[in-house]
Every structure is written in C-alpha cells, then in structure tokens.
Amino acid sequence: MNIRPSAAIRQNYNEIADMCRKTSEPVFLTKNSEGDLVVMDIETYNRREKMLKLREELLAVEEDRMHGSKGYSVDEVATMMRNAIKEAAGIGTAEYLRVPA
Fold this sequence. Notes:
Layout: E1 2-5, H1 7-11, H2 13-23, E2 27-31, E3 34-39, H3 42-66, H4 74-88, H5 94-97
Parallel strand pairs: 1-2
Antiparallel strand pairs: 2-3
C-alpha cells in the first residue's frame, strides 16, 4: 500500500503517476496524517469500474434466479449467440433466409 502526504502530489507528480502506472495500485494521500484522497492511473480506474459493473450485473442475475426467474440452458445460450452473430454479420436477413426456387 502506497501512502504519501498530500504535498507529495504537487512536489512529485511524475513519480507518483509512474508508480500508479507501474504497479496498477492506487496511492493514498494524507492530509494532517488523515486519509484524504486516492490517486490511480486511468487504466486501473477503468478496469475497476468495469469489474464493479460486472459484479452488480451478476448480483442482479443471481437475485433474479433466487426469486424463480427462468434461466437458459447452455444449448439455448449457444443458439442465441449464433443467431446474434449471424444477425450482426447481416446473414440473418430475409434474403439469406429465403429458400431458393
């Protein structure tokens, strides 16, 4: 855990920024010996935000499942994914699905 006084950000910005990028860990800044701010590089921040969003989505799905929501089998999910890929590629259009005469 990297802890620095808040004055360090003004005096050693580049050093702290490099440390955040190299370690992918936040730096905790103190003011009057108390925790005040957390500094981290943007990639680490974005990764943590995506992870939090994913966890929230998984929790919501699990809560739905516990309340009796119907799930899908592996085969059903695979079929839905194949259909979505075909549709995105334009293969699922009416012209493609038309049976030749």
